[in-house]
Amino acid sequence: MSSTRSSYVSIMVFSLCGLILILVSQADKVLASAIPLTVSRHQRVTPPSREEIPSYLIPGQPSPNKSIFFTGQSPIDRPAVKEWAAKAGLTSIGAVWQSGDNFLEISNYNATYEELVQFQLDFSTVFAEYSSGIAYLLIAKGFDPNPDSIFYTIELEALIKSNKVNKIIRLDMKSDLTGPEDWSSVDTVYWKKGDPKPGV
Q: Can you give the C-alpha Rg of the chain in angstroms?
């Protein structure tokens, strides 16, 4: 049990560090209505609670049949993956908030490390809970989700429990960090409603 907990904590640390590396570069962007316009590295706010987070979503987002989840990519590669998803017309976690990626930006918040980790888990849960219809999972070909990953431990659990998603389609990520050009015709089912949680 202790080794599993240590492994989970390690994944959380890696994920949070990756989130900081990706998002801190955007700190000078003008913030939209979900976060006060005065928020900056010098004036931070408390992260919204789990119950408050849904009110920060763009109305109607994420759109049905458009949510895409990533797992297994390095923090350095994540922006390229998100760029592909946007060009493909899919909706990733940074695209559903009224203030865009700024909602996820760590430098906007006055919180402890533990509180920031919980905030990451909470907004990941909300994104999954509000996804519906068909969802997509982008992952390297031949690999399964890490059992300690946020996708497997948090997002997949929420997708299944919400009862809003009919199936999750697996998309194989190519070496150039893009998914298949004909992603909408891919029918490789990772999970479908009524099935148990996939093993790893």
A: 16
For residue 151, being part of any structural domain is answered with: yes
End-to-end CA distance of the chain: 18
39 lies in a domain?
no
Closest C-alpha to 55, from 126, 131, 133, 159: 126
Closest CA to 26 of 107, 91, 86: 107
**Overall domain count for the chain:** 1
Maximum CA extent, the chain: 48
Q: Determine, yes or no, domain membership for 58.
A: no
Whether residue 84 is contained in a domain is answered as: yes
pTM for the whole structure = 0.78
What does the pLDDT look like over 154-189, one tens digit per residue?
A: 999 999 999 999 999 999 999 999 999 999 999 999
Q: Give the strand pairing for 165-173 and 189-192.
A: antiparallel
Q: What is the pLDDT of residues 67-107, one digit of tens each?
A: 999 999 988 898 999 999 999 999 999 999 998 888 988 88
The 3-state DSSP class for residue 7 equals: helix
DSSP helix/strand/coil, 185: helix
Give Cβ neighbours of residue 93 (< 8 Å, ≥ 6 apart).
69, 104, 123, 124, 127
